[in-house]
Amino acid sequence: MTSNLEIRVFGDGNGESIFIKFPNNKIGIIDFGCKYFFKWFTSYVTNKNLKFIEFLVWTHPHDDHTHYLIDLLDYCDKNQITINLFGRFHFGKLKGLSELIGQIDERYLQNSSTTYISKAKPGYLIKLFEKISDLKNRNLIKNIDAQLCIGKQLYGKDAIDDDISITCIAPCNSDIEKYNKKYDECLQKACSFQGLQSDFSIESSFHNIISVALIIEFGNLKILLGGDVVNESWHEIYKDDRFPILKSNIVFLKAPHHGSNGAYNEDIWNNWGKDFEIIISPYNKAKIPKAEILEKIMTHSTKIKILKDKSRKSVFGDSEFLVRKLALKDNSITTCPEATHHIKYDITKKGEIISEWVNE
Questions:
Q1: How would you label 172-193 residue by residue, b for 16+ Cβ within 10 Å and e otherwise?
Q2: pTM of structure
């Protein structure tokens, strides 16, 4: 048994997933958007003869964090893998809203290219919630927490490991209220049977305000997994003085929202200390990470790593900036020369962090 905390981040430009192995060999998974993660995980299960997952956390319903969740649950079902805790973002109306759309117009589920949760169409979400309920009823999911929000402790000290605690730092209550209000407005429009497609074509970025973010305390170390939390939400979170943990140094950051303009704020990032390890997963459709934000992030750390698309062997986002910086041999930004969607970190209790690009 190792005493290290292992974090693997997967990001192929289309989706993101995070795999965590704790010192006692229990595992947790955060988000399910990267197809390469699913392929890697099935191999991992076979090699380790895995029969138990400590937790799955679904941060928010965008497709790049959701798309392979049904595949993962089907795989757990087929292989009789028990999930102790399934936790997700704080919004309980998503399944009902999806069903309502289906009742109004079945063709919407089958043919519409207009969606209200990125690519996660109502039909997919209905099947997903049905699968989650089925696994809970058959005791393959032991516990469900559908109200992950600021201050919610997933695990206190000793619950998962002697040196580990995991706490939600987002979303905040005001953002949850804002999200519910928006969907109540949509519900009223849907009930009027008018303008269905336009009414449900909510601006995609709006769904980020309910994104879960987690902080892992490993001994005295703090590891921040920023989900897709954006700037407006960070400001609300930092108003809550109950969590001084947010205003202390960290050793590791999974950059929020793929290195976008909307997820960076100098004052907030300054709270996290200096020269901590940063990993950025790209998102090609929005062309992020952005060059101007990378330049700002470089003022906080010389330990920035960016995942690539393995098939194209390219960096998504503003790749011209990256190529220029690498050509100048600036050591702040590192990408794998062979191109990979997968990086592994081993973190010791002393704060030593060893990273390894993985080409599996």
A1: beebbebbeeebeebeeebeee
A2: 0.90
